[in-house]
């Protein structure tokens, strides 16, 4: 897919310490951590944003932050259909580009990055040792749906490997897929429960699982650098609170919390 100028601008945005004024976040309402703030965020942000939200509520003025976590594509559609949200945080540029093109999000900025890993159940019963093993006959692989970021990223990795291993590799891996899940956390759950021999998730998800899974790294040459953009929803009920939330995410304190959860700076 060729990204439009919106996504290319997002890709070039970088997080700045402090209030993030240079990162492309929409200006308008004064940024104030106050009132009720509704944040729609990618499922892979669940734990990091829960901690961010708690920190913000402690220092804000009567601030109450409500989160809705799901796949970025599902959240974007919900906002387009009128679901009340003040902030949208996506796990990829594509969904944010679509949101901006639809006029539902204003001037987003990239605030974090993530990378993909393979997870296998504790003990690795199928003996998976590398990304190439995903093509082994009979291996039960679980991915996310291809229309959500982690599912698209995973298929990009497989497609990149096919360039060196042949088209038969990609066909074999996809033939091993026994389940397509709604988001990265659902993929992780399948592997934790032993309902799959391997799955592809973000490294941040693997950290959440702890000893319930084992991690197999994906080579840098074929891995995907997932970029996470965030923006104020155009018809936000609390645009000042939304801007305040984003400022905190982009701040030194917010970035430190994200790093604790395995993300890298935007």
What's this model, at a glance?
By secondary structure, this protein is an alpha/beta fold.
Main sheet overview: 10 strands, mixed
CATH superfamily of the largest domain: Periplasmic binding protein-like II
Q: Which structural class should the secondary elements be placed in?
A: alpha/beta
Q: Note the gap between the termini.
A: 22 Å
Shape: elongated
The stretches of 5 or more residues where confidence is low (pLDDT under 50) are 1-9, 11-24
What is the alpha-carbon Rg in Å? Answer: 19 Å
Helix percent band: 25-40%
CATH topology of the largest domain: D-Maltodextrin-Binding Protein, domain 2
Strand content: 25-35%
For the record, the count of structural domains works out to: 2
With helices defined by DSSP (H or I, 4 residues minimum), what is the helix count? Answer: 10
Order of helices and strands: HEHEHEHEEHHEHEHEEHHE
Write the CATH architecture name of the largest domain. 3-Layer(aba) Sandwich
Count all strands and give the number.
Answer: 10
Taking all residues together, what is the mean pLDDT? Answer: 88
The CATH class designation of the largest domain is: Alpha Beta
Structure description:
This protein has helices at residues 5-12, 46-59, 72-80, 93-101, 149-165, 167-175, 184-192, 203-209, 239-250, 252-260, and strands at 34-42, 61-70, 87-89, 105-121, 141-144, 177-181, 198-202, 213-217, 225-233, 264-265. With 266 residues, it is of the alpha/beta class. The chain has two domains: 5-113 and 227-265, D-Maltodextrin-Binding Protein, domain 2, CATH 3.40.190.10; 114-217, D-Maltodextrin-Binding Protein, domain 2 (3-Layer(aba) Sandwich). Helix 1 crosses helix 4 (93-101), helix 2 packs antiparallel against helix 10 and helix 5 crosses helix 6. The longest helix has 17 residues, at 149-165. The two termini are 22 Å apart.
């Amino acid at each position: 897919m060729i990204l439009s100028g919106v996504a290319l601008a997002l890709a070039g945005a970088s997080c700045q310490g402090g209030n993030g004024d240079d990162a492309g976040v929409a200006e308008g309402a004064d940024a104030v951590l106050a009132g009720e703030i509704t944040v729609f965020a990618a499922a892979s942000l669940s734990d990091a944003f829960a901690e961010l939200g708690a920190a913000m509520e402690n220092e804000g003025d009567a601030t109450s932050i409500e989160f809705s976590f799901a796949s970025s594509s599902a959240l974007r559609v919900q906002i387009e259909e009128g679901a009340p949200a003040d902030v949208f945080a996506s796990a990829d540029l594509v969904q944010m580009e679509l949101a901006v093109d639809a006029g539902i999000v204003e001037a987003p900025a990239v605030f974090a990055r993530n990378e993909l890993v393979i997870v296998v159940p504790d003990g690795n019963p199928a003996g998976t040792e590398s990304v190439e093993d995903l093509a082994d006959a009979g291996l039960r692989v679980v991915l996310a749906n291809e229309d959500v970021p982690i599912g698209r990223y995973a298929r990009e990795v497989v497609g990149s490997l096919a360039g060196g291993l042949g088209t038969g590799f990609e066909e074999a891996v996809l033939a091993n897929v026994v389940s397509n899940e709604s988001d990265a956390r659902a993929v992780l759950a399948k592997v934790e429960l032993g309902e799959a021999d391997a799955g592809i998730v973000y490294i941040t998800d693997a950290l959440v699982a702890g000893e319930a899974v084992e991690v197999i790294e994906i080579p840098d040459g074929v891995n995907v650098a997932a970029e996470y953009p965030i923006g104020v929803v155009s018809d936000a009920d609390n645009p000042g609170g939304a801007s305040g939330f984003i400022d905190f995410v982009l701040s030194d304190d917010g970035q430190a919390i994200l790093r604790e959860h395995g993300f890298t700076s935007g």
